[in-house]
Task: inverse folding
């Protein structure tokens, strides 16, 4: 509660300023206006006392409490970052809706290029990531930092690549700058032989369905 206002004698009486005949007289050695009102003999004004200044108490912060609050803040910030990263990853990894050609090749365009389409026998550059059907990566040109250069449509690469880039049989041709995922059945890939076989084990097992993320970089 705040301090009470200084008490004044006469606060319960009508305002002295409104009474008609006020005559200054001496009251207890103080000069003050005295009313002729019969209930007021001396209106003595008490000097208000100056209240003592408020005492400020400084409490040292609890170091352990500060640390706990800091850790809680960091954990909350990390949680927000993790949630944002999870949402970004989910948006970036939107699954493809494959279209299947009569040959059995399935394809999905992630980015449709704006350049020219490749022509049979033309030298082109392409980046790629090759995966088995279980998701295991067996090869990547990105890891080498250099795209693959080859002549498309003449058998320098597996059939699934030639068809998936040049097009035909229900598959539209890729355009330079485009990115396409190919799902290649064994007969358009490495067949019953597999690839990279040594000592009874193969990097690409026989009769494997392969997934390739192909980026048509440019015409060489």
Result:
């Amino acid at each position: 509660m705040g301090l009470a206002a200084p008490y004044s004698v006469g606060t319960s009486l009508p305002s002295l300023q409104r009474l008609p005949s006020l005559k200054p007289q001496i009251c207890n050695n103080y000069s003050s206006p005295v009313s002729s009102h019969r209930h007021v003999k001396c209106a003595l004004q008490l000097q208000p006392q100056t209240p003592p200044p408020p005492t400020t108490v400084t409490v040292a912060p609890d170091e352990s409490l500060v640390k706990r609050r800091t850790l809680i803040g960091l954990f909350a910030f990390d949680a927000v970052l993790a949630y944002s990263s999870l949402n970004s990853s989910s948006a970036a990894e939107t699954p493809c809706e494959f279209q299947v050609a009569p040959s059995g090749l399935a394809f999905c365009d992630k980015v449709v290029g704006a350049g020219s389409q490749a022509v049979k026998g033309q030298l082109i550059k392409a980046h790629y990531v090759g995966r088995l059907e279980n998701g295991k990566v067996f090869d990547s040109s990105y890891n080498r930092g250099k795209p693959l250069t080859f002549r498309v449509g003449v058998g320098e690469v597996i059939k699934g690549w030639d068809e998936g880039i040049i097009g035909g049989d229900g598959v539209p041709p890729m355009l330079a700058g485009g990115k396409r995922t190919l799902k290649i059945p064994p007969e358009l890939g490495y067949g019953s032989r597999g690839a990279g076989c040594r000592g009874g084990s193969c990097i690409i097992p026989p009769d494997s369905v392969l997934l390739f993320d192909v980026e048509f970089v440019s015409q060489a």
Summary: The longest strand covers residues 123-132. The mean pLDDT is 73.
